[in-house]
Design goal:
heterotrimer; A alpha/beta; B alpha/beta; C alpha/beta; A: alpha/beta; Rossmann fold; six-stranded mixed sheet; 12 strands; C: 2 domains; DUF58 (chain A); DUF58 domain-containing protein (chain A)
């Protein structure tokens, strides 16, 4: 079964299965779906503490209290559940408009709405910023509104990828809090390793989930002989290419090498991007999300 | 096939056709002309914007010849005394313009073997000569008969006239004629006493001879008619030349009317030699090819860079 | 040298700059072109398309201006000389060698001279020839030229009956002046063709001597001797009067000898003798000469159009070969297993 545009709210429920779990405990008082640093009521045992320090006689650890030679009463403490803010950092620079076998702008809109949907399911706050080159084209304040996913989908449909560079991404990053946040960085990563390095450094120490939108056809142009007038959608510069088998092989090899260089930068930061090639497979995405080191 | 492919393809085909150079033939009327220039002394009068009549005629003729269509033939001669002398038989002007111009430049009053200037006799001679050469005649003169015509008037032309144009040169106000010595140096102007002011006493006497002073039926049948006069001054005798031209199937034009007027008069009075000329269609085809090719380039023009395009650029 | 028949057409030349601002092929969006490898062949094609565009439009505009290779002349090394023909136009030239009016088979001296000179000129393609004539007054008929058609027309104009008297002195001054002025390299020669002579006045003699001293040249006198007239080589009998007035031909010969120029006189009393004399002159005047040979004007428009056609064909081929970077075959956004 495949799912195609027009995107509508009906399809978004498919993203309900997406879930994320951070490796570290989060501070915070609001109750949510994530392990908090606070001790309190919960299902996951944390430690024991003297009753005096933690006066919760309902969770008296009887065994420990009885066996204690000094007769200290101990209570069991559990990790409190807390919520977090899911921030969708969308890189909507003009390069996203280039399309071969993937409608990457469509993928980005769908992903943004899907994550908003999943965040609502997971009782997390959801915020978004669409960064187009030098300016932030749209900013969605953190909220738990029920219709956020649909709203986001509609808003983004009215916008277009444009602009060049990473200035807006850096600017949006600077405004993000450093605690209780998960940044989902959705981009085509048509960047130099240095630019990626810059973005990832700016995002530290926040947990980041990079989602890499790839277009296989752009990465591996067909070897058919012909003339191509390639235009960079960001700079508008044009260059004629003489396409042939060797040329195609060279382009593909260069694209592979560029991806390898970017992956190396990701692993330097302890990250492994979730790569989406051409289309989204939700189950696959959920699995990858589970594995992702957050 | 797509238009963006057809445009340059058609331009290429048209340019190739232009290179092959197809043509259409059209009829062209060409005229052969013998130009005979009066080089008698009155032609040295400087009344053509301070240039001498001969210089003015030379300049005008050179410009006129240069403007004739290729294939026209022009011959060159000069006139003095009572006859003309042909220097060059008619030659094709485009190959031999330099020779014509050189010979024209060399025309000089010093070539005259006599000082007389009997216009009507010379004109008749030149017309016969032009008829021999199967050419029309352009006779460049100021119309100053020297000595004055006899009382019987100008001789009529014997034979058929090939047609042509008398090109009148000179001003309307009488001007003095420069005088030169044996070595060709200018030594002033002719005086009334230097020239013959009345017709030679040959032929029948004038009708009014009896009323003239000193008339004697036997000893002086002409009377004393040549005592005074202003034959030492020269002006363009337009009326006289018009009469001469009319009687010989020729037209009369002033030199100052310019080359177009001369060509128009020639077209009227000299039969044309019909030839076929080939007009190339290449410029038309090439212009069409240029339009198509430029259109093909301009069609590729579109709003600068599709930077904000959310849609594909390739269609 | 290249000339233009319709130079105004060059006003369209800015059209040829279109390819500098416009692209021939359809754009295909490819992100981060600057990070993708560049190959030399592609760069060559890129510049090549631009060049083809400029060439195609430019060649068409240039073709419309109708360029031509200016005719004119090329310098050419030949065998010949700078020759001035000085022709006697006195009326006696219209008589035959026998001194009568021409009738039947007998041709006049003028027409024989004209015919033989025509052949002579036709056989010597490298000569630069000028023609002067004289009767009472000298006249320049044709300035020095290489144009065979002009020379032929001037010689053929000699068919017209001649004029009155003979003033050979001034005629010689004109002819020698023409030969002396000639700036071209090569030998110079003056050939005087006359059937008589006249007394040369002292001032003209001085002028001729000056001319001879200024510029060396070969001098030939082809004397067309009529029956009954005295020859130029004949020594007078003792006691016979020997004055320039009575024997002008002999005294002209003596004068020309005294000019200290290479000088040859030929006496011809029949058309055959004239031919022999002219052949002899031709043999003596065969020296290397740098002359100019006329080159006809050649149209170059077809070449421009051909170049334009090839350029346009190249551009057409480029469009036939154009393709997108990636075929637009967009996969669905979502795939469910």
């Amino acid at each position: 079964m495949s799912f195609d545009a027009p995107l509508d709210a009906a399809g978004l429920h498919l993203f309900d299965v997406l879930a994320w779990r951070l490796a570290r405990a989060l501070p915070g008082l609001r109750s949510g779906g994530h392990l908090g640093r606070m001790r309190g009521a919960g299902e996951i045992f944390a430690d024991v503490a003297p009753l005096l320090a933690h006066p919760d006689p309902r969770r008296l650890d009887l065994r420990r209290s009885i066996s204690d030679p000094f007769g200290t009463l101990s209570t069991r403490r559990f990790q409190a559940r807390t919520d977090l803010r899911l921030h969708l950092l969308l890189d909507g620079s003009a390069s996203l408009a280039a399309s071969g076998s993937a409608d990457r702008w469509g993928l980005m809109r769908l992903l943004a709405a899907g994550f908003a949907q999943a965040a609502r399911r997971g009782q997390d706050l959801c915020a978004a910023s669409l960064c187009c080159g030098a300016g932030i084209a749209h900013q969605e304040p953190p909220s738990r509104r029920p219709g956020l996913a649909q709203e986001l989908l509609a808003t983004l449909s009215g916008l277009h990828p444009q602009g060049r560079g990473i200035d807006a991404l850096l600017a949006a990053t600077a405004e993000l809090p450093t605690e209780r946040i998960l940044v989902v960085l959705v981009s085509d990563f048509e960047l130099t390793p240095a630019e990626l390095q810059q973005i990832l450094t700016a995002l530290r120490p926040r947990p980041v989930l990079p989602i890499w939108l790839r277009d296989r056809a752009l990465e591996q142009p067909a070897p058919r002989f012909g003339l191509i007038d390639a235009q960079d959608p960001e700079t508008g510069r044009r260059r004629t290419q003489l396409a042939a088998r060797r040329w195609a092989a060279r382009q593909a090899a260069a694209a592979t090498a560029a991806r390898a260089a970017l992956r190396a930068v990701f692993s330097e930061h302890g990250l492994r991007p979730v790569e989406i090639a051409d289309s989204i497979e939700v189950a696959e995405l959920a699995a990858r999300l589970d594995e992702a080191p957050l | 096939m797509k238009l963006r492919l057809i445009l340059p393809l058609a331009a290429s085909a048209l340019a190739l056709l232009a290179a092959i150079g197809p043509g259409v033939t059209s009829r062209q009327a060409l005229r052969d002309v013998l130009v005979v220039v009066d080089i008698s002394r009155s032609m040295n009068v400087r009344d053509m914007d301070s240039a001498s009549r001969l210089d003015a005629a030379r300049a005008m003729l050179k410009g006129w010849i240069a403007g004739l269509p290729c294939g026209s033939r022009v011959g060159l001669g000069f006139f003095t005394e009572r006859r003309s002398l042909t220097l060059l038989d008619p030659v094709e002007i485009c190959t031999d313009y330099a020779a014509l111009a050189g010979t024209l430049d060399a025309l000089d009053w010093r070539m005259a073997w006599e000082g007389d200037s009997m216009i009507s006799k010379g004109l008749n001679h030149a017309l016969r000569r032009a008829a021999d050469l199967h050419a029309g005649l352009v006779f460049v003169t100021d119309g100053q008969e020297a000595p004055p015509l006899p009382y019987s008037g100008p001789d009529a032309l014997r034979g058929t006239s090939p047609g042509g144009v008398i090109l009148g040169v000179g001003g309307d106000t009488p001007a003095p004629i420069p005088k030169f010595d044996d070595l060709g140096r200018e030594v002033g102007f002719y005086e009334a006493g230097d020239v013959q002011n009345a017709p030679a006493r040959i032929g029948p006497p004038p009708a009014d001879a009896e009323s003239r002073p000193g008339y004697n039926p036997r000893n002086n049948p002409y009377g004393e008619s040549d005592l005074t006069g202003n034959e030492h001054l020269s002006a363009l005798r337009a009326d006289y030349l018009t009469t001469l031209a009319g009687a010989r199937g020729m037209g009369f034009q002033r030199l100052t009317d310019g080359a177009p007027a001369l060509n128009a008069a020639l077209a009227q009075h000299v039969p044309a030699r019909e030839t076929t000329a080939r007009r190339s269609l290449a410029p038309v085809l090439a212009a069409l090819a240029l339009i198509l090719l430029a259109a093909a380039w301009l069609a590729g023009w579109r709003a600068p860079a599709p930077r904000s395009a959310g849609k594909e650029i390739w269609r | 040298m290249i000339g233009l028949t319709q130079p105004w057409a060059l006003a369209l030349l800015p059209l040829a700059a279109l390819p500098l601002f416009l692209r021939w092929l359809r754009a295909s969006a490819v992100p981060r072109l600057d990070l993708r490898p560049v190959d030399g062949a592609s760069r060559a094609v890129d510049h090549g398309l631009k060049a083809l565009g400029i060439l195609g439009l430019g060649a068409l505009v240039l073709g419309l201006a109708q360029p031509y290779l200016r005719g004119g002349s090329v310098v050419h090394r030949g065998i010949g000389t700078n020759l001035v023909l000085l022709i006697d136009r006195s009326s006696s030239m219209d008589d035959t060698f026998a001194g009568r009016s021409p009738s039947g088979a007998e041709e006049s001296k003028a027409s024989a001279a004209r015919r033989i000179l025509m052949d002579f000129i036709a056989g010597r393609p490298d000569d630069r020839i000028g023609i002067a004539a004289f009767s009472t007054a000298p006249m320049l008929v044709l300035p020095m030229t290489e144009s065979r058609s002009a020379i032929a027309s001037a010689v053929s104009a000699l068919a017209e009956p001649g004029l009155s008297q003979t003033d050979v002195g001034r005629g010689l001054t004109l002819a020698m002046g023409m030969a002396a002025q000639e700036a071209a390299t090569g030998a110079r020669a003056v050939v005087l063709v006359s059937d008589g002579a006249a007394v040369i006045s002292p001032e003209v003699q001085v002028m001729l001597r000056n001319l001879a001293a200024q510029q060396p040249m070969n001098l030939y006198w082809l004397y067309l001797r009529s029956k009954g007239s005295k020859g130029i080589f004949e020594q007078p009998q003792p006691g016979e009067a020997d004055t320039p007035q009575l024997r002008p031909e002999r005294h002209l010969h003596i004068f020309l000898q005294s000019l200290r120029l290479p000088y040859h006189a030929f006496e011809a009393d029949s058309p055959g003798a004239v031919e022999a004399a002219v052949a002899e002159i031709g043999r003596m005047e065969s020296r290397p000469i740098l002359t100019r040979r006329p080159v006809p004007r050649r149209e170059l428009g077809w070449l421009c159009y051909l170049i334009a056609a090839l350029a346009a064909a190249g551009l057409t081929a480029a469009r036939a070969l154009e393709r997108p970077w990636a075929e637009a075959r967009v996969k669905p956004l979502l795939v469910l297993p």
